[in-house]
């Protein structure tokens, strides 16, 4: 049997064929988001089509992806994609119907139009064709954390919104109703034809799927301009389904809203938070198997991982930790928690080419957050992690090189052991390190070198830039001992680069070294300030070579001290 069925339906057919069933907006969907601007565009598109159409012309309104669900014992049609459009169209049809209901005189045309619209919104009596119960509407929103679901249902039942309502359902319904009245007043002859045109000539392409996975795949493919369902949308719905009472559901709604706000403030996504937390779970369960897709990970054992009683508490706590990191605050939950040295290391890690360091750090946070020693031990842990990750990237710059080690680190942490470091610093390491100057790791290396200067007390600004001491743009007449061939070789070496503030980098520009020194002395970055004290006003090849030697020695010494502790 085919997994999907694709047809072309008019608005009238799409909705009126729902007798005895209804569209369900599942709990994992996002809340209704159409604002007045989108409703205005829809209205303008519909009126323009009607006024400019040919006799048989049709107006295409897009696709709707659905999936049948009979788990409750009755067939329901879950809307996987198109919920915003379907919801808005039903609000529009209800506005049309309300306008017809309010007509001073109900002639045959008015009655006929009502009889065409009514089956789109409600179940009708199969014999009389009349609506006997306005509660039997053809849509139900079950969106988790959406407090206005009942407002939507009430508007469809009654055709009324509350005065001064601020929810989108009410605002959009009021807008459509006002436009219906306005159009009927300005176009009394064509008003009824306009209603028929929307019902008969506006086309939806329904894609009916047998399996939810198929529907979600099609949704992701078609929805390149929209917002595909994220893993966290699915997780939200699964957690919501575990809540039995209205009080529990309300509490979860508030908790999820708070979590979303914290995650946004932390510069993360909910999916990223769940990814971090998955490695906490893996560490606790001593799981070092190959990582699987996030949705598949949490879906295991019928989403058992999402049914744990402390789940929301721990997710919120983890989000607050990363918010603290982003804000650079030393205190967490009322106590000194993150040292200045730790923030320096975290700044360097933020420029590491992948996020596996965050997964390990999330595990470290949960295992050690309640210890009085966290303030000091955290910086020691970060120094070890940086040394391992950076050294491994130098030797093999791929994410696969460090994955298995990071899985093991999470286990080590929850077993209370030192990180299992399986790496070494070979004799040729300095040469290899020097060659990474054009790799993704280079920015992080230059920042680390800046922080290794014992005189670097303060944090370096987050949007620091990389200064070329010998500039990329120069004139041979002004630079002692340089030619273009030498410049190509030396320009991009570590010895010629330094972390610098954005404003100062602009001020220093492409000036001669002797001129730059006067700017460098104002820098709060110790490495830059040191350059201002350089005895010569020339910056030549031997200077770059000498500075690079010191750069490499500093980095390698740091790695050695952290990877070969006794």
Short description:
This is DUF262 domain-containing protein. The protein is α/β, with parallel strands linked by helices. The protein has helices at residues 11-16, 36-52, 83-101, 108-121, 149-158, 168-186, 191-201, 212-222, 231-241, 246-265, 270-284, 294-303, 311-327, 340-349, 356-368, 374-395, 400-414, 429-434, 442-451, 484-490, 502-508, 513-520, 526-532, 541-563, and strands spanning 4-6, 9-10, 23-25, 59-69, 76-81, 139-141, 202-209, 331-332, 335-336, 465-468, 497-500.
Tell me about this structure.
- With 566 residues, the chain is of the alpha/beta class.
- It folds into 3 domains: 4-228, no CATH class; 232-423, no CATH class; 436-563, no CATH class.
- Helix content is 54%, strand content 8%.
- It contains 24 helices and 11 strands.
- It has helices at 11-16, 36-52, 83-101, 108-121, 149-158, 168-186, 191-201, 212-222, 231-241, 246-265, 270-284, 294-303, 311-327, 340-349, 356-368, 374-395, 400-414, 429-434, 442-451, 484-490, 502-508, 513-520, 526-532, 541-563; strands spanning 4-6, 9-10, 23-25, 59-69, 76-81, 139-141, 202-209, 331-332, 335-336, 465-468, 497-500.
- Strands 1, 2, 3, 4, 5, 6 and 7 form a 7-stranded mixed beta sheet that branches.
- β8 (331-332) and β9 (335-336) form a beta hairpin.
- The N and C termini lie far apart (66 Å).
- The model has no long low-confidence stretch (mean pLDDT 91).
């Amino acid at each position: 049997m085919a997994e999907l069925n694709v047809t072309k339906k008019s608005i009238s057919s799409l909705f009126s064929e729902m007798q005895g069933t209804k569209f369900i907006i599942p709990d994992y969907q996002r809340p209704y988001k159409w604002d007045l601007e989108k409703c205005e565009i829809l209205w303008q598109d519909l009126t323009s089509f009607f006024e400019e159409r040919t006799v048989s012309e049709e107006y295409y309104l897009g696709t709707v992806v659905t999936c049948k669900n009979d788990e409750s014992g009755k067939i329901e049609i879950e809307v996987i994609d198109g919920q915003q459009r379907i919801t808005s169209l039903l609000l529009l049809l209800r506005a049309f119907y309300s306008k017809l209901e309010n007509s001073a005189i109900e002639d045959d045309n008015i009655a006929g139009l009502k009889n065409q619209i009514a089956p789109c919104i409600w179940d009708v009596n199969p014999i009389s064709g009349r609506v006997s119960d306005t509660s039997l509407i053809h849509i139900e929103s079950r969106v988790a954390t959406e407090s206005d679901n009942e407002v939507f249902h009430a508007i469809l039942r009654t055709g009324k919104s509350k005065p001064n309502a601020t929810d989108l359902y009410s605002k959009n319904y009021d807008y459509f109703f006002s436009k219906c009245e306005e159009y009927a007043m300005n176009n009394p002859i064509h008003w009824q034809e306009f209603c028929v045109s929307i019902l008969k000539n506006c086309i939806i392409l329904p894609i009916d799927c047998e399996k939810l996975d198929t529907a979600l795949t099609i949704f992701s493919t078609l929805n390149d301009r929209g917002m595909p369902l994220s893993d966290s949308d699915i997780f939200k719905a699964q957690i919501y389904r575990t809540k039995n009472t209205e009080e529990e559901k309300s509490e979860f709604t508030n908790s999820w809203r708070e979590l979303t706000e914290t995650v946004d403030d932390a510069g993360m996504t909910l999916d990223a938070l769940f990814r971090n937390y998955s490695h906490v779970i893996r560490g606790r369960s001593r799981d070092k198997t190959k990582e699987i897709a996030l949705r598949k990970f949490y879906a295991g054992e019928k989403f058992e991982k999402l049914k744990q009683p402390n789940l929301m508490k721990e997710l919120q706590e983890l989000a607050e930790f990363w918010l603290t990191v982003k804000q650079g605050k030393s205190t967490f939950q009322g106590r000194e928690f993150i040292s200045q040295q730790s923030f320096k290391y975290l700044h360097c890690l933020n420029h590491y080419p992948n996020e596996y360091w965050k997964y390990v750090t999330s595990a470290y946070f949960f295992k050690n957050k309640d210890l009085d020693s966290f303030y000091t031990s955290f910086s020691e842990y970060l120094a070890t992690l940086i040394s391992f990750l950076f050294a491994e990237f130098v030797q093999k710059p791929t994410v696969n090189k460090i994955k298995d080690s990071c899985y093991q680190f999470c286990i080590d942490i929850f077993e209370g052991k030192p990180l299992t470091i399986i790496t070494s610093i070979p004799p040729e390491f300095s040469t290899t390190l020097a060659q990474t100057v054009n790799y993704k790791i280079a920015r992080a290396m230059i920042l680390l070198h800046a922080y290794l200067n014992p005189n670097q007390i303060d944090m370096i600004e987050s949007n620091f830039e990389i200064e070329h001491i010998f500039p990329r743009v120069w004139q041979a007449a002004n630079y002692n001992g340089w030619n273009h061939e030498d410049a190509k070789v030396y320009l991009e070496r570590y010895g010629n680069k330094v972390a610098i503030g954005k404003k100062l980098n602009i001020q220093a520009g492409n000036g001669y070294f002797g001129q730059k020194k006067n700017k460098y002395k104002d820098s709060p970055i110790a490495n830059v300030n040191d350059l201002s004290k350089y005895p010569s006003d020339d910056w030549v090849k031997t200077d770059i070579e000498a500075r690079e030697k010191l750069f490499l020695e500093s980095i390698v010494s740091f790695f050695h001290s952290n990877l070969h502790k006794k």
